[in-house]
Amino acid sequence: VKEPAQRPPMGNLITLLTDFGWNGGYVAVCEAVIASVAPAARVLHLCHEIGTGDVRAGAMVLRRVIPFCPQCVHLAVIDPDVGMDRRPLALTVKRGDILIGPDNGLLLPAAEILGGVAEAWLLDAARVRHESGLATTIPSSTFHGRDLFAPAAALVCAGLAVSLIATPADPLSLVHPSPPVWHATTDGVLAEVMEIDRFGNVELAVRFDALAPSPLITPGDSFSLEIQGKDLPKWKARVVETFGQLQPGELGLLRDSWGHVALALNGTSAAEFLSVKAGMTIQLTADKGVS
Amino acid sequence: VKEPAQRPPMGNLITLLTDFGWNGGYVAVCEAVIASVAPAARVLHLCHEIGTGDVRAGAMVLRRVIPFCPQCVHLAVIDPDVGMDRRPLALTVKRGDILIGPDNGLLLPAAEILGGVAEAWLLDAARVRHESGLATTIPSSTFHGRDLFAPAAALVCAGLAVSLIATPADPLSLVHPSPPVWHATTDGVLAEVMEIDRFGNVELAVRFDALAPSPLITPGDSFSLEIQGKDLPKWKARVVETFGQLQPGELGLLRDSWGHVALALNGTSAAEFLSVKAGMTIQLTADKGVS
Amino acid sequence: VKEPAQRPPMGNLITLLTDFGWNGGYVAVCEAVIASVAPAARVLHLCHEIGTGDVRAGAMVLRRVIPFCPQCVHLAVIDPDVGMDRRPLALTVKRGDILIGPDNGLLLPAAEILGGVAEAWLLDAARVRHESGLATTIPSSTFHGRDLFAPAAALVCAGLAVSLIATPADPLSLVHPSPPVWHATTDGVLAEVMEIDRFGNVELAVRFDALAPSPLITPGDSFSLEIQGKDLPKWKARVVETFGQLQPGELGLLRDSWGHVALALNGTSAAEFLSVKAGMTIQLTADKGVS
Prior knowledge:
By secondary structure, the first copy, chain A, is of the alpha+beta class. Helix content of chain A is 19%, strand content 29%.
């Protein structure tokens, strides 16, 4: 078992992302297992309110938060195929972190943003449970977060070599998530709505830098937007840098804090105003001569 | 005040379960009091979204999560009779943990699963507040979580002997919660719905092992189910081991991760499909000759 | 960088209050930044469900929880004017704590309850990002919680002198929040509803001690209450010390756990019963001769 002082860059942190919700003790029992197996480990809760079974949304949140985390163990469990033949993974990445979770696409975008997969491993449930002292209890068929992934993360955080609880896998065999949908049009982009945040900002599945063909768009430019499948009037959105630059009721388009295109209103919900939800598609068209 | 190194099995962990919700700072202020009284203590949040005043539901969550926790101090506050004559408890259990909370049945099922109550104590509010350095402030009549239970848990976690802040009580005098309702029928069971989880799985108040008279049910068996007080058609539920074994729209019956009987659909909410809520009663009848 | 042992009263705690919600990883990324900059720091989550942009509500929760916290760094981000010219603050207070957040009134009530502002500082974003090793990344215009305030809090928690990342400001120049609204009437008070808690208790913007002109009200007294702008019957509320003293359906008035006047029912929601929400105004009139 490692001493934090021996492996200072890794530290004793385990980030945790799930779709369990805070209710019912499902998240807590994973943290309890971690505390039992690795008393020095600390859990940093990334998010537990991902839509149930929504692997893509979980992958997106994990990918965008993980670059801000110190090098550590990342445990992510959105696992609709628990108990079936989907494979349980441990991935080491080029930055040095270790990612643990199901092989359903949840981990790969995060692994890629950390430099790519260095080694892929398949967790061996029997070895995980033996090493974590859980061998005498019966693992469930429906909650590998608690019975397999959390103890594996705890063991690795405590310094156990991944090779002692897993067998090598071919990184090329890993399941990829379906990517966010967007494509360039002649004078703009068409992009999926990835997320509505708590403020009602509408985040699109396209990076701000990809928006303008050339030259780069600048504050003051404007775009027309059309929501696919809706017989609504086209809206105008003015390019701004932050919310406070918008007049009351004025729709804005900005580079959000993750580098994506977002639609926003100042102090109220753009999503409600536009009646859009995650998964819808929005077309943005540059207003020529307006800027 | 103990050093973690002196009492390694107990560690510096305090688990916390309440019905306060995350909003308004009610949970946080308990953690703040703990941080003030026992700076080395760490709080593991079990659940704060229990229905307000629902002692039975809180007792159930505490009981099922606590076996996965390391030996430590467990603080639980669902306390509808705060400020009345209900007694404030500290229980030591055979496994070595210490449970702190109101004497209303919340702690007992958890104590029993940890081997049973070893010693029962009644917290002395004046001594708790004196030892925790809060003596000069006025405790409230409505928030003993903050003013009595949290400081008591912090003191005990920091190594103070329970006997210094409490007086002995007769374990036989403790208030028991009303038990979950279920009973066997000639060819099945009748059981209360204990919980709907975030996935819409319907957990019943009966352990899976109690379901089948003999021989044990096996995957492929099926049950008819009837919801008491509802004039609905009977549904069929097939016994499976995990969600992914169910066809779209097919209702399943499985041993959930806590060992109970649960009704489930694959990827969608069985509770919505059946229109059931916690507290309803469901009758399960084995389909003879189907398995 | 300080060792905890060198500054024991400050400890390694950072409290965190935001209006980000738990979803989407916005809170987590702030905690991740803190973990990256100050690995020994621990985050105590005060509340993240404040109404979006509701600086007054955030200031109220911060103010009431902060006296229960040990001396430490307090990070609060409710920041509707992010990216505009509102100033980023670090305040040292007489008790010794350091408060970090936007200059919009969020921090001042908390600073005042901790003895008042000792020194006011304006954070220098370039220096914060240089000291925290983030200089090479581009800060966003819309998320200073992650890009400025969290690294500043981490640096200060790790022992860096505030003067190295900030310039002095005049404490008299700080923005004050609009105060909660209440005033005495001839025989009672008129007060704004500050908060509805999870139990449906209605907290008013007036301290219990201010309620009765003279002599002090005592349990058993009663008040008539009228909700401004509603054509509803007047209700009676009996003064009690705790919820359990109320009969089923009886409305009570009590000193809540923060010292304010609250209206409550026993085991059910007074807010639903009265159809009141935060921001409404309630008039309380003492019933002469009833006590």
